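Chain A, query sequence.
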Amino acid sequence: MKAKEFKESGYNLGDIVWVCDYRFNNEMLKKPIRHVPPTKVMIACATETGKHIYYSSFYFQKLNKKDEPIKSSVIALFDNTGYRFCTGTGLRIFYTEKECIEYYKDVCEGLVQELHNERDRVLKIYSDMEEKLTSNTK
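Chain A, predicted structure.
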């Protein structure tokens, strides 16, 4: 479920959900904009943390092995690509681990395909350039 849909749904503070996100910026070889592997979290009130949570009245806390929230962990609903009145891109939220993992795998497979396509594009440019240079030297 997209972040906006989730905000508009009837969530409750204290509910446990699964979140994930993986997005590159325009340069795929650099660090991703946001990488949140499938993570079990609890919904918490944004006013209860000392950190600024933008564009949302709640945030997510990771859970320990006993399903208790880890107070120091803060996962914001939206990333930091937003500006003023435009929110950033939100996490994907799921009610089951299986759905979350399936979505995450699909995203990762898509990114791997994009990397392969970019590699092929660059190799073609190099091959064309090399062919042009060898034909000019004859």
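Residues 97-136 form the longest helix (40 residues). The beta strands are 16-23, 34-45, 58-62, 92-94.
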